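Progress note, sequence design subtask.
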């Protein structure tokens, strides 16, 4: 078997592309073994808990091996591709090196467990050290043997069973499913138990739990209950991972941590809709997308300027309210991978044309699935436009770490009393949810009323700015 020369092979490891993210799923490989790559060339696309990201290779060479197929979730710091920087024909993967039979040297710590992740995007556990791999012979110190022994029924010392190798998420999964890791035959490399192993072990338990109880009587023998298999023709199961998983965890954390209050107001936005049409003809907005969301975003920014205390966050560990002197305006966007909330940095400092340009770029990037993790970090206030789906309003859940979120309903032609007469007017309903720990009813009401007043009379964008 041909092997790769260690001196010329570089292993490219899964990077941390989002400040603390611990894993990513390989969505697509753009190269295959034998392909020539150059420094900066994109070799694959991965999906983290926040976005899809393209990964460039940092050196020139020939691809020798792809360590994982598409669809595999890989921990940060794990090698995913081998590149021979000296060039040459691709070689077969090297055979695993035989482990020494002497006592292993002191082990260097290697990252295995989850590293701290961004607050609000999922559970974080402390970093851990990888347990020593189980080799043919392992010398155990006498002190460790004494700790790892227990007495049997005859008083003889019996060595305790070694703890099964499994990563923290897999251990939690096993605990949730009621599976004893010691009973599982591992299928992972070096005897590591995988998620698939746990699910396979849990399947019989689930079937047993779902089976009806058979009551024995003297006249009848127990009849095994039939196990109904999953009907793939009638149901589809979609793994919860990536952006969807992170969104679910964030929303649960937000809903059960921050006390939500939602207020509503219905407003006549006829003048705002007229202004939208006028701005579309303005040369300052040529090439830019002008829509009601642009003026709603500007109205919210003006309302925040008039009521700055709403632009804050709750710091639980330090028991402090953190007032933000900048506005990173989040825009909730529905994508094929789930809901994401990228934000416009320093939106408060942008002119209306600049805000229109930023909104256009944000929407286009989100639709392409190219939103970077950095674009979804540091938001202060969010807008969610449920009106695009024809929905009148809703009770939005706060984006973690933020104090308020504005939901915009559908803009519809409705009968409205205008200047003493009932006339058809463009009307919409706004809903503002806020964190009642730091935003009281008065402050929340003022912000919502200001947004409504601006949309009813958009000239206030000038007089109140």
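Output:
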């Amino acid at each position: 078997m041909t092997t790769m020369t260690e001196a010329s092979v570089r292993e490219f490891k899964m990077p941390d592309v989002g400040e603390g993210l611990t894993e990513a799923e390989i969505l697509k490989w753009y190269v295959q073994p034998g392909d020539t790559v150059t420094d900066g060339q994109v070799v694959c696309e991965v999906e983290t808990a926040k976005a899809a990201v393209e990964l460039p290779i940092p050196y020139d060479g020939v691809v020798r091996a792809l360590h994982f197929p598409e669809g595999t979730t890989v921990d940060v710091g794990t090698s995913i591709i081998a590149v021979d920087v000296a060039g040459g024909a691709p070689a077969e993967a090297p055979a695993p090196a035989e482990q020494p039979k002497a006592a292993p040297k002191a082990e260097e710590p290697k990252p295995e467990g989850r590293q701290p992740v961004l607050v609000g995007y999922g559970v974080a556990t402390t970093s851990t050290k990888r347990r020593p791999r189980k080799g043919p012979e392992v010398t155990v110190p006498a002190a460790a043997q004494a700790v790892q022994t227990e007495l049997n029924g005859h008083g003889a010392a019996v060595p305790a069973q070694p703890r099964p190798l499994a990563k923290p998420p897999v251990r939690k999964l096993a605990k949730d499913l009621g599976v004893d890791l010691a009973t599982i035959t591992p299928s992972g490399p070096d005897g590591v138990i995988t998620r698939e192993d746990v699910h396979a072990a849990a399947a019989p338990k689930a079937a047993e739990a779902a089976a009806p109880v058979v009551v024995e009587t003297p006249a009848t023998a127990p009849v095994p209950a039939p196990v109904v298999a999953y009907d793939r023709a009638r149901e589809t199961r979609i793994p919860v991972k990536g952006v969807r998983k992170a969104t679910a965890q964030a929303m649960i954390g937000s809903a059960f941590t921050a006390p939500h209050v939602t207020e509503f107001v219905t407003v006549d936005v006829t003048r705002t809709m007229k202004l939208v049409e006028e701005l579309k003809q303005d040369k300052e907005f040529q090439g830019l997308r002008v829509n009601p969301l642009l003026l709603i975003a500007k109205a919210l920014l003006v309302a925040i300027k008039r009521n700055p205390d709403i632009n804050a966050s709750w710091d639980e560990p330090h028991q402090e309210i953190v007032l933000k002197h900048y506005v990173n305006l989040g825009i909730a966007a529905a994508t094929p991978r789930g809901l994401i909330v990228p934000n416009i940095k320093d939106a408060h400092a942008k002119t209306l044309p600049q805000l229109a340009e930023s909104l256009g770029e944000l929407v286009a990037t989100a639709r392409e699935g190219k939103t970077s993790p950095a674009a979804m970090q540091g938001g202060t206030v969010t807008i969610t436009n449920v009106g695009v789906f024809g929905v009148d309003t809703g009770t939005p859940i706060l984006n973690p770490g933020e104090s308020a979120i504005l939901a915009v309903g559908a803009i519809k032609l409705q009968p409205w009393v205008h200047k003493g007469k009932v006339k058809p007017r463009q009307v919409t309903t706004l809903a503002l949810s806020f964190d009642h720990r730091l935003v009281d009813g008065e402050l929340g009401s003022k912000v919502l009323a200001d947004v409504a007043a601006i949309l009813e009379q958009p000239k206030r964008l000038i007089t109140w700015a």
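Residues 89-160, 212-221 have pLDDT under 50 and may be disordered. Work on this subtask will continue into the next period as scheduled.
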